[in-house]
Structures are given as C-alpha cells and as structure tokens.
Amino acid sequence: MKFEEMPLVVPNLKKAEKTFSRLTNRIKNAQTKEEAIKVVKDYFKASDELGSEITIISIRNSIDTRDEIYEKANEVCNEILPVISGYTQNFNKALVESKFKSELEEKFGKYLFDRIENSFKTFNESIIPELQQENKLVTEYEKLMASAQIEFKGEKRNLSQLGKFLSDTDRNTRLEAAKLYFGFLSDNDKRFGEIYDELVKIRTRMAQKLGYKNYVELGYLRLDRLDYNAEMVKGYRDQIYECVVPVVKKLRERQAKRLNIKNPLFIDYNLEFLSGNAKPVGNTEYLVDCASKMYHEMSSESGKFFDFMVDNHLMDLDAKAGKRGGGYMTFIPRYKSPFIFANSNGTSQDVDTLTHEVGHAFQGYLCANVKVPDYRMPTLEACEIDSMSMEFFAWPWMDLFFKDQADKYRFSHLDGAISFLPYGVEVDEFQHFVYENPNITHEERCKKWAELEKKYRPWLNYEGFDYLINGKYWIRQSHIFASPFYYIDYTLAQVIALQFKCLMDKNYAKAWKKYIKLLKLGGKYPFLTLLEKAKLRNPFIDGNVKKVIKPQIKVLDSFDDKNF
User: Fold this and answer.
1) Which terminus in the chain has less CB density within 10 A, N or C?
2) How confident is the model at residue 184 (pLDDT cuts 50, 70, 90)?
3) Distance CA 81, CA 71 (A)
C-alpha cells in the first residue's frame, strides 16, 4: 500500500485497555502450551496494529509539524503511550509467571524474556506522569527547531535549508549563514535551556522512583543494553581520545592547508576543498534514480527492496517549511513497510542520508516477516551498523551520484566517518556528566560542554560567535533532548562499519555476504552476541579501534586531495 493511502487512525485508549486486559487474562488462564503460544502470537498482532497507528501519526507529524490534525493526533499518542506501557507490562508479568514459561522460551527464544525482565526495571505506573511530560517536552523541542523561518538570499528557510550554505565556497556566505543559524538558537536559548532542564529533572525523578541513584543506569536499561555498561563505554571513549583525536587533529591541519587558511574558524571546516565540496549532480528525483540503479546492481535482494520503497512512496526526502529536521527510518508493521524520512538540501549529505537510511530500511525489509516484534530490528547501536556500513558499500556507485567529483566525495566521506568519532564520544561524556549532576544550571552544563570540546575537538575556533564560545553548540543535537545516551551508538557502529570497509577493501563480495548475514539476524541477540555471530571485532576491547583506523588512514593518504 502506498504511504498516502495508509489510513490515519488515532489510537483509542479504552479499546487498547480492553484488548490487552483480555490478552492478559487469556495468558493467565491458558490450559495448554499450544493455547499459551496462540495468546502470545495474538499479543504480537495487537502490538503491531497499535504500533502501526502510532508510527503513521508520527511520520505525518514529522513531515508537517504545522498540520493541526497530525499535531493533535501526536498529542494523543504522547498522552496514552505511557498508559499503554502499563497494560503491556501487566501482560508481560503474566507471561513470565506462566506455568508454560519454559515452553514459551523454547518457542520464542530466551532473549525475548531477558528483554521483558529488563522492561520491569524501567517502568511502573508511578512514572506515567513523567513519561507523558517527557514526550510533550521532546515534541516541543522538535517543533521549536522546525519553526525556524529565516530570511536568507531572498527566501525564507528552515534550519535544514539554511544548512547547505554553511559549506559554501564563499567564506562570507558561510559566516552569514552561520550567524543566522546559531542566531536562531541563541534567540531561543532560554526556552531550549528550560526544556532540557525539565527533561533532566523529569528523567532523574523517574530513576529515583524506580530505585536508581540517578538516570544513568536507567538510561542504559531503557536502551536494552544488556551486555555492556557505563564503565565499558568509558574505556571505549578513552580509546577514541587516545587513538582517534590525534588523527583527526592532523586531518584538520591537512584540511587547513588545502584551504590555504592559516587560522580557520569552525565554519571553515565545513568546506573540504577550495573548489567546493562534492555535490550530487542532480535533484532528489535524480538521486533516487541513481540509487535504484545502484541497488539493482548491488544484489537482487536490494534491487527488489528499493523497488518496493519507490513503488509504495515510502520515502519523503526533500526539506520544506514546517518539516521536522534530521532524518530517520521507521517501520510500519501492518504493511511490512519501512519508511525513510530526510531533509535533502543539495549537499553531499543528501547521498549520505539516503544510503544511511536505506541501510536501516533494507534490514527492516529483510526481517519484515519476523513474527516476534522485538526480533525484527536490533538494539540501536547494532541498527546503526546496518546504516553506516551501507554508506561504504555504496562507494563503487558514487560516480553515478557525483560524476567527476566521486573521488572527492569518497575522500570527504571517509574523513568524515573518522572525524565524527571524537564528537560522538563528546556528546556521550557530556550526557553522563549532566545526569550525574542533574541539579546544575543551564550555564554550568554549557561550561562543561565547552571543556569537553577542548578535550575532544581542540582545533575548533569560535571567534566572533559568543554563543558557541559559551558552550552551546550541543543545543542543535536533537538526540541529547530526545534519546539520552543514544549518540554513542553511532560511534560504536561507525567503528564496526569501518571494519566492513577494511573487509571490502580486500574482498567486496565476502564483506557483502557477512553484511547480509548480520542484517538477517535482526534483533535476535544483544549487541555483543550479534558481533560474535557475524564474526566482527568487539569495539570495547582495547586496541580494536586502532585496528580499523590505521588501515583507513592509508586509504585517505592514497587520495591526491590537494588537487581536488
């Protein structure tokens, strides 16, 4: 079914209560193993139906945050989702107490029950008011970010549309666009700070109600991190600091030489080459045509998948007024349909985002028929392996998108993949500090960000931008508001994606086979077990980051970037 034909149905709380109460009573009263299995399957179907309704509302609200129908529907979802969590928890409690638990574990897998047991540690009905308020505040942040209508070069532009000018070849254009971009954030700094402060305090209150000292442990459990902890993440951050920060510092010095700028400002690093950054040679429609050719040549499976996405209008890619920023992939269970949301603005990031979100969507498509909803997609850090690796698997086809600028793109993309790692762990360390110190002020949080910036990205110069000197760059990072502790997942996945890059440099077909195996595993195992099953190295083990960075520095050195 085409996306626009999918009906908009606002979930009914009374109906949901009745459905899940009936299922809970059925699992409690099941008399045979077969009867219990049938109840669990019916529960999966009910969850998929409700999830589909909520997902369609969320997508439509993202596409147009100004539409009152979608906004009101989204508000209903924000209100009822925490209440429904109570209904599902009641079912799960009855499930784990079932006299047929061992038979159900054998049928559906122990990992499902591990995740259910974990869910008991992250929710009880006492935190429903906090969950409702959390949802409202995240929506307010996203709506405020999407509300920007900034006059620039004769047009009103949102932040995504303005973003392409931040890498313009003309330095004055870059500076002017940056002043307007960060000027909008500065103008709204008071409210952004209040929203985040309220979120931190609400999450801390939830953690304390559930018996935790602070939100850190609860935040990890909410992300289903069952096989690693904050201490292991700290060791991983140390690897990035020791191994990657010096490499990126040299890359920025190399870039400054290419640009012939002695004292570059932060905004200068958005421009890779004096001749301009690589830009796709056509509009969004052209990029989709190129992607279609690429995915048909890549494999028969990926070709069929991309046809499915195009034929059913399951991508909304162009930036436009009122549209939420960023990009994502989500999945609509009722129609077994992934959906890709993006904000194309004419830069190379359009190709990055397309290939990235297609990686997510391809995994969702390959696991669309998995009956256990929890097993369709892995936890977030493993999800990001699927997307970030796809960006590298697309390299042989970049000539389609960029023509004679393809090598320029490949250099920038690999440089960017490595250079991202210090920023990603900076975001993570910042969040640990924030939630370990929940009562500090907005300005104290910003002071800590500025301190971490000097640690992880000492090359940045914000001269003339007091807002950024005062440590407020983080405001633009939606994950910090919406998904605490998620951001480190991108860096973990990037290190694994660079493993795939090292493999494909030696044997592309073998690397692709390993990649498909990983995708088809879906979410049947926790993160480290998935890596083990796919025979990929564990990034938490000291030395494993260096093993993937070193070969790719040689790849970067093989490019004649001075002449791009």
Assistant:
1) N
2) very high
3) 15
DSSP lists the bridge partners of residue 152 as: 155
* Residue that is written with structure tokens 């954030």 in the block: 185
In the block, tokens 């993937």 appear at 548
Give the integer Cα–Cα distance in Å for 84 and 20: 9
Cα within 13 Å of Cα(83), Cβ side: 14
Number of C-beta neighbours around residue 232 at 10 A: 16
Mean local confidence (pLDDT), 187-199? 97
Q: What's residue 509's pLDDT?
A: 97
Residue 322 has pLDDT above 90, yes or no: no
Tokens, residue 15 = 């109906």
91-149: per-residue pLDDT in tens? 999 999 999 999 999 999 999 999 999 999 998 889 999 999 999 999 999 999 989 99
Using alpha carbons, select from 106, 112, 3 the residue that is nearest to residue 47. Answer: 112
Q: Give, in order, the Cα–Cα distances in Å from 408 to each of 62, 197, 405.
A: 33, 42, 5
- Say which residue the tokens 């990035």 belong to: 240
Percentage of residues of the chain with pLDDT beyond 90: 93
- Tokens at residue 126, please? 């006492």
Asked whether the beta carbons of 519 and 366 are under 8 A apart, the reply is yes
Residue 260: other Cβ atoms inside 10 A: 7
Q: 156: which strand partners?
A: 151
Burial class (CB in 10 A: 0-12, 13-18, 19+), 438: middle
CA angle 524, 121, 33 (to 5 degrees): 55
| Adjacent-strand bridge partners of 316 | 341
Tell me the C-alpha distance between 381 and 536, whole Å. 14
Q: What's the pLDDT tens digit per position in 65-101?
A: 999 999 999 999 989 998 999 999 999 999 999 999 9
CA angle 458-459-462, nearest 5°?
Answer: 95
**Edge-to-edge strands, sheet with 328-332:** 315-318, 337-344, 328-332
Let me know if 439 is exposed, middle or buried by CB neighbors in 10 A (0-12, 13-18, 19+): exposed
Q: Is 90 exceeded by the pLDDT of residue 335?
A: yes
CB atoms within 10 A of CB 253: 12
Ramachandran class of 224: left when φ > 0, alpha when ψ lies in -120 to 50, beta otherwise: left
Q: How many helices (H) and strands (E) does the chain have?
A: 26, 5
Rounded distance, CA 217 to CA 432, Å?
10
How confident is the model over 393-452, as pLDDT tens digits?
A: 999 999 999 999 999 999 999 999 999 999 999 999 999 999 999 999 999 999 999 999
Tokens of 287: 């990029």
Give the per-residue SS3 of 72-87.
HHHHHHHHHHHHHHHH
> What is the rounded CA–CA span in Å between residue 24 and residue 125?
17
Nearest to 56 by CA among 8, 119, 105: 8
C-alpha torsion sign, points 154, 159, 160, 163: positive
510 vs 10: CA distance, rounded Å:
46
Pick 345 or 480 by higher pLDDT.
480
pTM listed for this prediction: 0.89
Q: How far apart are CA 296 and CA 527, in angstroms?
A: 30
